[in-house]
Specification:
6-stranded parallel sheet; two-stranded parallel ribbon
């Protein structure tokens, strides 16, 4: 009997919902899990509780768990689930250097300048749908979470992806996140900024297919 196909499961970024990955899912079918602060309004629990909510909605495995931006924190926290065959982190945030509001805003503005103008209204609509209160609570909960420590215990392949114009996820931070995972690697997308999931769907889909193949090979070696 052939091994089951690894199914991508996406966790949106801060304030984003299914619309952020619509173009990507047209290239590569995937499920999307919305969580408080990430597509859903309302109270935002701890990262561990968000990870538990995510695990409850994974469905049958195996899955390739894909987090974007702030969703990377939750994906990393849920990556120990036995159904998770691989992890992809798209533009992981929470660089410790960006915990001050002033520095974060400056980096966000520098990144926004590098984004295509057409997708900014789409991002704004999603933020309004999730709501500033939930977004603020998610940031406060997730920003101090030690993603590098969590990844140290992740036994499956981890691919960290960043756009070369992403100032919220600079190269040295992305490289450090990838190095924290026992089976981590870094992929950089030329010309992309922080919203590569929305602006560079074909390139991101290619990375996900590669990560899925690597995860399947890793699973077969451990079988």
């Amino acid at each position: 009997m052939p091994a089951p196909v690894i199914r991508p499961v996406l966790v949106p970024g801060l304030g984003l919902d299914t619309r952020s990955s619509a173009r990507l899912r047209a290239e590569l079918p995937a499920d999307v899990v919305l969580l408080p602060g990430m597509g859903l309004p309302g109270p935002v629990p701890s990262v561990d509780r968000l990870a538990a909510l995510l695990r409850d909605r994974l469905g049958a495995g195996p899955v390739l768990l894909v987090g974007h931006s702030q969703g990377c924190q939750v994906a990393a926290a849920a990556a120990g689930d036995p159904r998770v065959a691989g992890v992809v982190l798209l533009g992981p945030t929470t660089d410790p250097r960006l915990r001050s509001a002033r520095r974060l805003v400056l980096r966000w503005l520098a990144t926004a300048i590098g984004e295509p103008w057409w997708q900014l209204p789409l991002v704004a609509v999603q933020w309004l749908s999730t709501g500033p209160s939930a977004m603020r609570r998610l940031w406060r909960s997730a920003s101090p979470d030690p993603i590098d420590v969590r990844l140290g215990a992740v036994a499956v392949p981890v691919t960290v992806v960043r756009g070369t114009r992403d100032r919220l996820c600079p190269h040295d931070w992305a490289a450090a996140v990838a190095a924290a995972a026992p089976h981590g690697r870094l992929v950089e997308l030329p010309g992309a900024a922080h919203m590569a999931v929305q602006t560079h769907p074909r390139e991101v889909a290619r990375v996900l297919r590669q990560a899925r193949s690597a995860s399947a090979a890793h699973r077969d070696r451990r079988a």
